[in-house]
Specification:
Layout: H1 4-27, H2 34-53, H3 64-72, H4 74-80, E1 82-84, E2 87-89, H5 91-108, H6 112-132, E3 138-147, H7 150-162, E4 166-176, E5 181-192, H8 196-206, E6 210-215
Antiparallel strand pairs: 1-2, 3-5, 3-6, 4-5
Helix pairs in contact: 1-2, 1-5, 1-6, 2-3, 2-5, 4-5, 5-6
């Protein structure tokens, strides 16, 4: 029979490995961050331990409770996926929660090395590869800017299309000032990671009447 210290060690390692993934997500300003991920990993490990030892050692199928974690974690992942204005967001976060649950289950069985290797692979895929080969990745960018004329707004949109930027949403609001009328624009677009800030900021120099408010 496993001692309380061994079971506590499994839970602790699950917490640490799940938390490591959560910290990376927290750094990326995702809603599901450190707390969500460590809770998922810890809960999965606990379910696995209960499945193994909670119903007696003569139980024929000790995997039934653990198996439900694999399908049950889907409700949490589905809650992080948002479909808005022809864009799907949160798929990476949902997949991260799913694999974090798997890491928690792995810790629950005492396979610490496998859990650690899986955690390293997740962090490698999320962080290092993303930095090493940014040219193949895309990101969703929200550009807010103001322009003095409608023509300048049209020129920015046309230039974005020429730069192979895919525009999903377009909001235009006129703003009246004591001297003239300006236009506040919000563009939601998908573009490649590499130097996207430089490309967008270049529009200010290219179009004299354009002032960029924010790039998110």
């Amino acid at each position: 029979m496993h001692t309380l210290s061994e079971i506590s060690l499994r839970l602790l390692i699950a917490l640490l490995l799940g938390g490591a993934i959560g910290i990376e997500r927290e750094y990326r300003s995702k809603d599901a961050g450190f707390r969500t991920h460590f809770l998922v990993a810890l809960g999965s490990a606990l379910f696995c331990i209960v499945s193994q030892y909670g119903f007696g050692f003569d139980l024929k199928d000790s995997s039934r409770v653990a198996a439900q974690v694999v399908s049950g974690i889907g409700f949490l992942g589905a809650g992080t996926i948002i479909f808005q204005r022809n864009m799907v967001r949160g798929l990476t976060t949902a997949a991260g929660l799913w694999v974090t649950a798997a890491i928690g289950l792995t810790c629950g069985t005492g396979m610490y090395a496998v859990a650690a290797i899986a955690t390293a692979m997740v962090l490698l895929g999320l962080e290092i590869l993303n930095a090493a080969i940014p040219q193949i990745g895309t990101t969703t960018v929200v550009l807010r800017f103001s322009a003095t004329t409608i023509k300048e707004v049209e020129q920015v949109v046309e230039q974005a299309k020429q730069d192979s930027i895919e525009i999903y949403a377009y909001d235009l609001k006129p703003r009246t000032t004591p001297t003239a009328t300006a236009y506040d624009v919000r563009l939601e677009m998908k573009m490649r990671h590499r130097k996207h800030d430089e490309i967008l900021l270049g529009y200010m120099h290219q179009f004299s009447g354009v002032t960029i408010t924010s790039i998110e």
